[in-house]
Specification:
Elements lengths: L5 E5 L9 H10 L2 H6 L1 E5 L5 H4 L6 E4 L16 H6 L4 E4 L2 H7 L3 H13 L3 E6 L3 H5 L3 H12 L9 E5 L13 H19 L7 E5 L4 H8 L6 E4 L6 H8 L6
Parallel strand pairs: 1-2, 1-8, 2-3, 3-4, 4-5, 5-6, 6-7, 7-8
The protein binds 1,3-dihydroxyacetonephosphate (13P).
């Protein structure tokens, strides 16, 4: 089964209007050779979305959305607003949202459904804590998360899953290649059991301290269909260095 990979950048709360220049460099680096092999996505802070969406050759998306269409939800944005600004993806259930704002699997599933309602793709994030990994609970934890965070109508067109071990985010630490492969194999099995043949096509991204120096090893693993990149996506050279690994595959 060949699945078209996605290399996605999550800028988190970084960037300003002047970052359009760096973003433009990323977009310019997405040349014909890369476009033949992969999709690319940048999720900047929401206030930059409409500006970044002026550049048409790579996708842009939001880092979160509310599950409602509109209403009295001060400070929130809806998936419809993301789509209106030109976004075609939205990250849902990032661990920084789950941990910092108490988002549950049910909240994440509702946000994924909101994304589809607005006609955009949900990137559903899951991942275990260090405590859970050390207790040998990783597979059980991520399998439960993927089951509960993905609504029944999930498919390979409307949903991407990103596995991000919490302890690997922003720490420079990554699981071993064997550990990543083990988790992705378990996630694939779970998706296939639930969604049948289409479950083998849902893109499974790895995230957590991905950088140009470890990208080749991580992205070559079975059932790894791309990366969700934080810090290294802020610099065009680093982000493109990760994406360009695919030129050699
Ligand atoms: P880092 O690549 O900075 O570890 O962040 C990963 C992440 O959280 C992407 O969503």
């Amino acid at each position: 089964m060949t699945v078209r990979p996605l290399v996605a950048g999550n800028w988190k709360m970084n960037g300003a209007l002047e970052s359009f220049e760096e973003f433009s460099k990323i977009a310019a680096g997405y040349d014909a050779a890369l476009a033949e092999k992969i999709d690319m996505l940048v999720c900047p802070p929401a206030v930059l979305l409409a500006k970044f969406a002026e550049v048409k050759n790579i996708a842009v998306g939001a880092q979160n959305c509310h599950s409602a269409v509109s209403g009295a939800f001060t400070g929130d944005i809806s998936a419809e607003m993301v789509a209106d600004a030109g976004g075609t993806y939205v990250l849902v259930g990032h661990s920084e949202r789950r941990e910092g704002y108490g988002e549950t699997d049910a909240d994440v599933a509702a946000k994924a459904e909101a994304a589809w309602r607005a006609g955009i793709i949900a990137v559903v994030c899951i991942g275990e804590s260090l405590e859970q990994r050390e207790a040998g609970e990783t597979i059980a934890v991520v399998t439960e998360q993927v089951t509960k965070s993905l609504p029944d109508a999930s498919n390979s067109e409307n949903t991407v899953v990103a596995y991000e071990p919490i302890w690997a985010i922003g720490t420079g630490k990554t699981p071993t290649a064997d550990d990543v492969a083990e988790v992705h194999a378990a996630l694939r099995k779970s998706l296939e059991e639930r969604f049948g043949e289409d479950g083998s096509k849902i893109r499974l991204l790895y995230g957590g301290s991905v950088k140009p120096s470890n990208a080749a090893e991580l992205l070559a693993l079975p059932n790894v269909n791309g990366a969700l990149v934080g810090g290294a996506s802020l610099k065009a050279a680093d982000f493109l260095g990760i994406a360009e690994v695919y030129k050699n595959f």
